[in-house]
Amino acid sequence: MLMTHLAASRYRYYRWLLAGAVGAAILLVSLYTRYYQEVKSIELSQQTLATRTVGKLNQLLTPAQLQAERSMDMLDQPCENVSSTLRFRAAQNQALRAMLLVKNGIIYCSSLFGSRHYQLAAVMPTFVNSNARLALRPSLAVSKGLPTLVMWTPSPRDKTSGVLHVFNIELLSNFLLEPQEPYVQRVVLNVADSSLEYGRREILSRDTLTNDLRYTAGSALYPFSISLFGPQIGMLALSALPRHIPLALLISLLAAYVVYLLTA
Fold first, then answer.
1. What is the number of domains present in the chain?
2. Rounded distance, CA 39 to CA 240, Å?
3. What parts of the sequence cross the membrane (predicted)?
């Protein structure tokens, strides 16, 4: 009888041990699954934000490019003849600060100030010395020092002639580059070696913005990219785990109870 009682007690102990091990395993698997899902969800949220921001900027630049292509015939006329048309076309885009005509490397007409005479190579050397089409630069006229995004559309017949669009990107960045906490703490627009960060009214060197970089999406249409900065994805996923613990614990307890009954 004593041996039978000891055997029964030992068997019951092993049943509890097996049930506990299965419950613990189920708990760990459940939490790891939730962790993996959180990581993928955060990555998807970041990618969606970056892709959506790139798409919005593409939608801003594409009409301006088409407008520039339609305006090439104005390059054969003096500024006095086309200034009213230039102002009208610039007013059609609310994000546009100015539209300028360039002939033989000379900026000769502005939608804001009329006749001008500036060397394109002196004002925007990146457009002359390379095949760049976009540039971030501080404003030199209205609201001096504030960031602007300049788009250059050269004439198909003469690369020293074309149309410049100057966008008030500092204003646009307030809604185009708005981060989404906690997944994204900072959103940055990159053009060549220059960057503009949400909430900052200055253009920074791209090399200075490397800490906490999580994701970068480039445009397939224009030479710019969007970079997202924030905490490590693993840490964000871990911080989200506590809300999944009650359900995971309930599942593990049910699994342990079922194993205990099945081994009776």
1. 2
2. 10
3. 13-32, 244-263
Tokens 């920074």 correspond to 204
Which residues are CB-contacts of 108 (< 8 A; sequence separation ≥ 6)?
A: 79, 101, 102, 115, 116, 117
Residue 258, CA distances (Å) to 14, 30, 247, 253, 263 in order: 15, 17, 17, 9, 9
- What pLDDT tens digit does each residue of the chain (264 aa) get? 444 656 667 777 777 888 788 888 888 998 898 899 889 998 998 999 999 999 989 998 999 999 999 989 899 899 999 989 999 988 888 788 889 999 999 999 998 888 888 898 888 888 887 788 999 988 766 666 688 899 999 998 888 899 999 988 776 776 677 777 787 888 889 998 888 887 777 788 887 777 888 899 999 999 999 999 988 888 888 888 888 888 888 888 888 778 777 776
Instruction: Give residue 38's Cα distance to chain centre.
Output: 20
- Amino acid identity, residue 20? G
Could you give phi then psi for residue 255, rounded to 5 degrees? -65, -40
Q: Which two tokens stand for residue 82?
A: 């086309």
Q: Given phi > 0 = left and psi -120 to 50 = alpha, else beta, which region is 143?
A: left
Are the C-beta atoms of residues 213 and 168 closer than 8 Å to each other? no
Residues spanned by the domain of 191 = 42-59+171-232
The domain boundary residue, chosen from 169, 204, 219: 169
